[in-house]
Write a structure and sequence with these properties.
about 130 residues; alpha+beta; Cytidine Deaminase, domain 2; 5-stranded mixed beta sheet; 4 helices; about 30% helix; binds tetrahydrodeoxyuridine
Length: about 130
C-alpha cells in the first residue's frame, strides 16, 4: 500500500478519537506486513494522565488481534505541523512493532516519513534485560 493511502486512513481515524479535554484529535493507521490496516484514535479520561495516544490504541488493538509483523504507522492531527509520536509511543512501537516507518501527516495532507530508529536512537530494549 502506498503511504499516501495509509495517510488518508490516519486522517479518517481521527473520527475514532475521544479527546474531550484537550480537543486535540489524533488518528493512527498501522500497516501490517500482509497489508492489513488497524486504526486507532486517542482516548482521554478525566484523570488526564491515563490518556492513551492514537498510536498505542492501534498497536495494542493489532497485537491483541494476533498481528505480529508491521511495516509502517501513519499519524494525523488537525495541527498545521506534523504530529510526531510521543516518547512513550516510540518505546512501545519499537518493542512491539520493530523498526517501522513513521508516516506523519499534517492538515494539508502533506507527508513526512522517518524510520522509528531515527526518532528513538540508543533505545532500551530486550538486550538490556538479559
Ligand atoms: N496524542 C496522540 O494521540 N498522539 C501523539 O502522537 C501525540 C499526542 C494525544 C494525547 C492526548 O490525547 C492529546 O494528543 C494531547 O496531548
Amino acid at each position: 500500500m502506498e503511504y499516501k493511502k495509509l495517510a488518508e486512513m490516519a486522517v479518517e481515524a481521527k473520527s475514532s478519537s475521544h479527546p474531550p479535554y484537550s480537543n486535540f484529535h489524533v488518528g493512527a493507521a498501522l500497516l501490517t506486513d500482509e497489508e492489513k490496516v488497524i486504526i486507532g484514535g486517542n482516548i482521554e479520561t478525566s484523570s488526564y494522565s491515563l490518556t492513551i495516544c492514537a498510536e498505542r490504541v492501534a498497536v495494542f488493538k493489532a497485537f491483541s488481534e494476533g498481528e505480529r509483523k508491521f511495516k509502517a504507522i501513519a499519524i494525523a492531527s488537525d495541527a498545521p505541523g506534523f504530529c510526531p509520536p510521543c516518547g512513550a509511543c516510540r518505546q512501545v512501537m519499537l518493542d512491539l512493532c520493530g523498526d517501522i516507518d513513521i508516516v506523519m501527516v499534517n492538515n494539508k495532507n502533506e507527508i513526512k516519513a522517518l524510520r522509528l530508529s531515527q526518532m528513538l536512537p540508543y533505545p532500551f530494549g530486550d538486550n538490556e534485560l538479559q
